[in-house]
Amino acid sequence: MVEDASPQLREVSAALAPHTGRAHIVGITGSPGVGKSTSTSALVTAMRKAGKRVGVLAVDPSSPFSGGALLGDRVRMQDHATDPGVYIRSMASRGHLGGLSWAAPQALRVLDAAGCDVILVETVGVGQSEVEIAGLADTTLVLIAPGMGDGIQAAKAGILEIGDIYVVNKADRDGAPQVRRELRNMIALAERAPDAWKPPIVLTVASKGEGVDEVAAEIANHLEHLSATGELRERRHRRVRSEIEAIALVGVQKRFAGLSGDSRLDSLADGVLEGKNDPFSAADVLIESLSG
Amino acid sequence: MVEDASPQLREVSAALAPHTGRAHIVGITGSPGVGKSTSTSALVTAMRKAGKRVGVLAVDPSSPFSGGALLGDRVRMQDHATDPGVYIRSMASRGHLGGLSWAAPQALRVLDAAGCDVILVETVGVGQSEVEIAGLADTTLVLIAPGMGDGIQAAKAGILEIGDIYVVNKADRDGAPQVRRELRNMIALAERAPDAWKPPIVLTVASKGEGVDEVAAEIANHLEHLSATGELRERRHRRVRSEIEAIALVGVQKRFAGLSGDSRLDSLADGVLEGKNDPFSAADVLIESLSG
Fold it and tell me: What pTM was computed for the model?
């Protein structure tokens, strides 16, 4: 229903509402090739050992295809395919009205209400979505690997600002200490309040499971910190605000499309195309039509 | 003003409106490493030879930084830095309310009104934005290079569907004939009306300027086809519709934020956080507040 944006989702969402807000949502981001899938799979193993019910939502904002097993990378998740305490789902958002900001929170609500203790949200695609995914999570893991192009320079454009926990994966490779040093410097330079969370750096070799328990422990630490400081509530409040806004904007967009059988927007577009009007004035007319 | 989403942009847009609609907007997409910047620069050279005024808009949806010379790749454009018939601008949209769908059309309007005959829109970042960029253009070039991972398989997720012209760059490398063959098959398999445009495939070595005149000629052919069939008007109409809608949605979003000093959305978010309400009902209340 989420993937199809089914109208029935409204009722389902209302029924689920009282059962949500329990899951710890952990975003996993990083450039392609750092080992996101392998790390996610290893984290699932670690969390299952601790008796937790785990959900995995693999989001691919660049693909129009959704489904449990469509994405190639999901093969790495097959270790967990028969474990009833693990639910894995791939989700695409290309072409979705409202995109990721609409669809992903709804999928998370379903997994949350289904009783997942932790939900790992992993991006399968690349690009700007990384930052968007971080906005969905209580805790954001940023994965880096040595020997990826310009090292941490390459990642600086966006994802390095959003990490609550930094994981240097493939730490058995040359260059791992260098990456850790650069990350340490970066973290040391960032301004933060004295009692604020200081992002830890964990070295892992996810393919061998090395360091993964430590990552799981830091994830738990971060949740504890968020709860103790009240930041959890704040982050979730911000998130729900965005979620409501995204749903409302899609609702407005549908109303725009429905205005006099769509012809309102068409005639406004004609006016702009002919140079008689500018798009801002046309947009004003469109908004006014909503209340009319 | 566009980059800052300045309030004065409204007046400017109104003043520019009668002067827009002349430029041929050409999108240039492709995976990182296929030679987008080099190809863009070579196309500028070819179009300048033909006496055209050329605008280049390099869009990076993953970066928060805008500016004429901030992005490293722009270095390749320095051949044209002193040519008054070429205007080059880098543009970022991360963090922009409304994102690329809001900001890029406004930048294109400015370049259009400034008298550019052709505007090349190149993506600097990666990911889903490719398809978004194609939505901005009259003509979309898809660049592919041999020896990039899985060949054209790798690109299949989205960008292969959107090309009006396919360019196999780095065609002096092994594998170029193979890429051309695969593209040919793909194009042959696609369903299209008998009189529809059939995307040509051009082989280039952009770094040496080889094949670039042919690309420029195909770009001109495509424009002619679009004009002759009335498709140009249709594409632009669709585009202006989206543009008006994007501006209106940002306008609505600003009104949401302004509702009773923002407290409306806050209390709705609290209700959802506490499980008393679901986000869909909250969104309905938010939309109703607009007319209230």
Answer: 0.70
Q: Which residues contact A7 (CB under 8 A, 6 or more apart)?
A: none
Query: Which B residues, 42 through 81, put their C-beta within 8 Å of a C-beta on chain A?
Result: 61-64
B262 touching A (Cβ < 8 Å): no
- The answer to whether the CB of B93 falls within 8 A of the CB of B62 is no
What's the residue count for chain A? 292
Q: Are B26 and B112 spatial neighbours (Cβ–Cβ below 8 Å)?
A: no
Of the pLDDT bands very low, low, confident and very high (cuts 50, 70, 90), residue B259 is low
Contact A287 B233 (CB under 8 A): no
**Six token digits for residue B252:** 């609505």
For A38, residues 6+ apart whose C-beta sits below 8 A from its C-beta are A76, A169, A206, A207
Q: What is the average pLDDT across B25-52?
A: 91
Q: Which of residues 134-193 of A touch B (CB under 8 A)?
A: 157-158
Residues of B within 8 A of A243 (CB-CB) are: 272, 279
Confidence of residue A75 (pLDDT cuts 50, 70, 90): low
Q: Measure CB to CB from residue A251 to each of B131, B277, B287 and give the nearest one.
A: B287
Residues paired with residue B86 on neighbouring β-strands, in sequence order: B54
What number is the ipTM of this complex? 0.77
CA proximity to A242, closest of B203, B136, B253, B12: B253
Q: Which of residues B171 and B3 earns the better pLDDT score? A: B171
d(CA B137, CA B25): 5
Q: How far is B271 from chain A (nearest CA, A)?
A: 10
- The domains located in chain B, with CATH, are 9-229 (3.40.50.300), 243-291 (no CATH)
Mean pLDDT value of segment A139-167: 75
